[in-house]
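To assess whether ligand presence alters the predicted conformation, the chain was also submitted together with zinc ion. Input:
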Amino acid sequence: MGSLIEDGRKFIEDADRIMVFSGAGLSTESGIPDFRSPGGLWSKYDPADFYFDKIISDKDARVKYWKMSSESYKLMTAAKPNAAHMAIKKLENIGKLFCIVTQNIDNLHHRAGNSPEKIIEIHGTAFSVSCLKCGKKYNRDDIEKMIDSGIKDPLCDECSGILKPDTISFGQAMPEDKMAEAIQCAGDSDLCIVLGSSLVVYPAASVPAHAAKSGSKLMIINREETPLDSLADLVIHGSVSHVLSEVVRL
Ligand code: NAD
Ligand code: ZN
């Protein structure tokens, strides 16, 4: 492990434009479960219940969706950035951070103090809600108050349309502008560091793959193997907060 940490430090030393690509594994040590690990969301809920088509067409599915979503939102508001989020902030402090492309919806990169213009949330954010019919935006906390008061399927106060958190569900189109921006950042970076992602969710995983194919070095820090390990210049298996704070020891 020691020499892998040394290799990681050297990669950072040599880089000028680092892209961080983060997944749910970055936030498990902040108390937010990921999807696929034991004890993760998919050991508790059936992902088939939360496909976008189902949420928009079936009131019962929506009630179930809001129940799961409110439960994880409460964990997200209570969570604090961990040592790995803070190490990424250090990369920005020393002028090496080019961008953060995150699959996370938990706002923890913002709360760690990274500049909003460097953060691309390709799966959206849990911290705001929109009407799917008229587009009216709501603060998530206001909607949570409605849910706490017993409204199980909140609707738009302007047009009675369906409300949904601004996150990308399975089967829902990805925001094209954000994906394009992420791919551009990948192509322009000289080091891509993947943190806590199983890299099985597409098109998200095409971002680090594009970085590697465009000549950027690829470093993956994850507890378990990923399908992109064979493309990587350095793979370190371990706790992301432990490993990254050793690698970014400034
Ligand atoms: P994933 O659950 O598919 O994979 C997480 C990976 O991180 C796994 O390979 C796991 O072994 C690893 N991991 C977990 N904890 C770790 C730790 N402490 N140190 C090192 N590795 C660790 O998550 P994904 O790849 O991000 O894809 C799932 C989707 O779930 C994303 O699209 C995301 O939008 C959504 N999601 C987000 C959050 C969040 O915002 N925190 C939480 C759950 C799910
Ligand atoms: Zn509306």
